[in-house]
From TrEMBL:
Keyword Transmembrane appears in the UniProt entry: yes
Species assigned in the record: Niastella soli
Domain of life: Bacteria
Cleavable signal peptide: none
Membrane spanning stretches: 40-61, 73-93, 118-140, 146-166
Keywords: Membrane, Transmembrane, Transmembrane helix
Name listed for the protein in its UniProt record: YeeE/YedE family protein
Pfam family, one: Sulf_transp
Length: 172
């Protein structure tokens, strides 16, 4: 898109719909063009991520159930570590003005909180507790041969499509 975030002032919008339509603008999208084979690096990182998930038992249905039943610290430790690493990473990026691997500036934009996030989190947590899977580990679970997780993946895709279809009617 030719519109940049600097050209957009959210306060000038007259309706909630107009403001929410900004969600569709990818404000951190790279302006550089790369050959298709550059995407293999993402596949390699994804495969490494999946191996780590398997070895750390993050994809284990039993570990996830232990977490939701408050029987084990394992998953809370993993999630807490991820949050701390993320916080330190963002701090370092901001402090040292770190750029992407292609030399582009990394920008952080504030997001407005709304009540729809609470509803979404509750639905996400309920689905996670019932199925023992969240979007990240789904593919690692399928990769280990748990083909029943394909039902969960298809359900997640259907849920995403349903949200997109009813988005304008939902509370935000």
């Amino acid at each position: 898109m030719s519109t940049t975030t600097k050209d957009i002032d959210i306060s000038t919008f007259q309706s909630d719909f107009e403001a929410r339509s900004l969600d569709m603008i990818c404000i951190n999208e790279s302006r550089q063009q790369h050959p298709w084979w550059y995407n293999f690096k993402y596949m390699a990182v994804g495969m490494l991520f999946g191996i780590v998930f398997i070895k750390a038992e993050i994809i284990s249905w039993f570990r996830i159930q232990e977490m939701f039943r408050l029987q084990s610290f394992h998953m809370y430790g993993v999630i807490g570590t991820a949050v701390i690493v993320g916080m330190i990473s963002v701090w370092l990026i901001k402090k040292f003005n770190i750029k992407t691997i292609h030399g582009e500036k990394i920008e952080f934009h504030p997001k407005k909180f709304n009540k729809g996030q609470i509803y979404g989190a509750l639905i996400f947590g309920l689905g996670w507790a019932l199925t023992g899977a969240c979007p990240g580990p789904l593919f690692a679970q399928i990769g280990t041969g748990s083909l029943v997780v394909l039902v969960v993946l298809l359900s997640a895709i259907a849920g995403t499509w349903t949200y997109g279809y009813f988005r304008e009617k939902l509370p935000h």
